[in-house]
Amino acid sequence: MVDHKDIETAQVKVIKTALRKGKKYDNIAKNYGGYLKKLRAEKEPNEYIKTLAVKMFPNEEAYTIRLENYRKRYLDNDLCASLVYALYYQIAKEENRERSDEEVERDGNLTVFGTP
């Protein structure tokens, strides 16, 4: 399963690649620097990335659109931002999937409703 360290590593890779590319990519380096700073400041970074992933990619269409927009804007696929998106999308798919009865019972979600 993807965790916050995987996201952090991918973000650092994007920043380094963007900085090597020059001025045209300064903005993406700055943006990802902000994302990285926010992630590192979170008390519960794994919960943060799960929440963010679900917001970014509530469905496959949202993922496809975001990836297409990125590719149009940055024709240079060497930037690796698509890797970051892929990681967030993987988290979102896991969080958005329907849980089995066994998982619900195992996780204890029924006890909230007074069902043992």
From TrEMBL:
Source organism per UniProt: Rhizophagus irregularis (strain DAOM 197198w) (Glomus intraradices)
The organism's place on the tree of life at top rank: Eukaryota
Lineage: Eukaryota, Fungi, Fungi incertae sedis, Mucoromycota, Glomeromycotina
Protein name: Uncharacterized protein
Region annotation Disordered: where it falls in the sequence: 95-116
